[in-house]
Specification:
mainly alpha, two-stranded antiparallel sheet, 20 helices, rod-shaped
Length: about 400
């Protein structure tokens, strides 16, 4: 309000002065020594006001050099920001085009005057990763962490992702577990962790992770079942590879009952039991699996198991034959069991019957061995030839 009032007063004064001067123009004389200058009064007043304004501006500039400095700094900052923005954009384009060296150079060159240095450092880390410059990659990630507060999780996830894509599984796992301590339910972290456990065949930790993945709705029931079965099978094979029967048996007892009847689990464990001279346990294992579901591979293995209950094995195989009909694998099994029991003639009948239904190389090989025992070398030779041809 005061400014408006002052402006009106000044305008009125100027208008009044102009009227007075037009009514009585007058003269102004300036004398200095022998010099004398005369001019109209209105020109003198105007020149005085203009001189005052010029002197005021000059005095402000001379007494306040910080203004010029600030103006210069402001211009330089805007110029650097524009240049940094342009170079960052060029670096990101080079990164997208696969020109890793150019991308890294531009991104690091422009990072100093970028308002968001985090973007430059993360992108430069990806370029260094592509160049296999892991030391520079880790250095850029460290700079990114220091450049922006609150970006720890984002930087560590980027680091884990780069390590994952370069198959640095152990390093990636260490990074992910560090993130897990602070953000145990981060979905992308959990996804990477699941993949790393699979690559490292860390089945026990994968099984511990699966309930959390289901709770976070990252896998459905079908995927959960698939991953569980894969983890259990991998874990079982690891236990069997270690060759410790007690540890393997303890793990077997932990398996879900449904898996203890599946051939994918029964076959390797049964072979392990046979190698460990636990024939009776192997026979019981395969027999229970066959009761649950008939599988040709299981019945073929069952014929190779010669337990102390050989007669009961024969009876069980005959019961399967009644259920499944003239199934060639069961007849092969009966032939093998009959050989183990010393009933060679009966074994010959089972094997030849099996071959008439379907000529398997395995059956020819068993019959060839039996023919040698019976002294029929010609039949033995014919069977071995068929076993090789088939």
């Amino acid at each position: 309000m005061f400014r408006w009032f002052s402006s009106i007063v000044i305008l009125l004064f100027i208008a009044w002065s102009a009227l007075m001067l037009s009514a009585a123009p007058g003269y102004m004389a300036i004398t200095y020594g022998q010099w004398s200058i005369e001019m109209p009064l209105w020109f003198g007043i105007t020149a005085t006001i203009f001189t005052f304004i010029v002197l005021y501006v000059l005095l402000r500039l001379l007494n306040g050099p910080g203004i010029l400095l600030r103006l210069f700094k402001k211009w330089r900052h805007a110029h650097r920001y524009e240049s940094s923005h342009r170079q960052t954009l060029q670096g990101l384009l080079a990164l997208a085009e696969g020109d890793w060296t150019k991308a890294e150079n531009l991104l690091i060159k422009s990072v100093r005057f970028n308002e968001i240095p985090l973007v430059n450092y993360l992108a430069a880390a990806k370029a260094a990763q592509a160049l296999k410059a892991y030391d520079r990659r880790d250095q850029y990630l460290h700079y990114a962490l220091e450049s922006t507060s609150g970006a720890k999780i984002a930087v560590e996830l980027t680091q884990a992702e780069l390590q994952y894509h370069d198959e640095q599984w152990e390093h990636c796992l260490a990074t992910l577990r560090h993130i897990q301590q602070e953000e145990p339910h981060h979905k992308y972290m959990l996804k990477l962790l699941k993949e790393v456990y699979c690559h490292l065949a860390d089945w026990s930790h994968l099984l511990e992770l699966l309930p959390l993945l289901k709770k976070q709705k990252m896998i459905d029931a079908f995927q959960l079942q698939q991953l569980s079965e894969k983890a259990y099978l991998g874990w079982l094979l690891q236990c069997l590879k270690q060759g410790d029967p007690e540890q393997a048996e303890l793990f077997w007892q932990k398996l879900p009952k449904a898996l203890q009847r599946r051939k994918e689990w029964v076959l390797p464990y049964a072979h392990f039991l046979l190698d460990s001279h636990k024939t009776d346990l192997a026979e019981e294992l395969v027999r229970d699996a066959l009761k649950a579901q008939f599988e040709p591979e299981l019945i073929e293995l069952y014929g190779q198991i010669h337990s102390a209950r050989l007669n009961k094995q024969m009876d069980f195989a005959l019961s399967l034959l009644k259920q499944q009909g003239q199934e060639p694998h069961i007849l092969l099994c009966l032939g093998q069991l009959a050989i183990a029991d010393g009933a060679l003639s009966q074994a010959h009948t089972y094997l030849t019957h099996s071959l008439r239904i379907r000529p398997y190389p395995k059956t020819y090989a068993v019959l060839g061995t039996l023919s040698l025992q019976l002294g029929d070398k010609e039949e033995a030779l014919r069977c071995f030839q068929q076993a090789v041809v088939k």
